[in-house]
Amino acid sequence: MSDCCDNLSRALEDNAILQKARGTIADGRILNDIFSDFYIRMPGEGHGYRYYAINFCPFCGRSLSAASPDAQP
Ligand SMILES: [Zn+2]
User: What is the pTM of this model?
Assistant: First the structure.
């Protein structure tokens, strides 16, 4: 869940940004090594999606991974 900011809440509602547990992504692949439950999803080549994990809110800059208990370094 996200209490970050209204912009992020809206982006999640619009599926501009997705919140998923890392192990549950089965419809694409993650292209970077950031450990986070927040992703930007893009269409892949062929089937599936490309996911970019993001550590920080793109709107207000707060840490997103800190909100995820499994994401501690
Ligand atoms: Zn935010």
Answer: 0.79
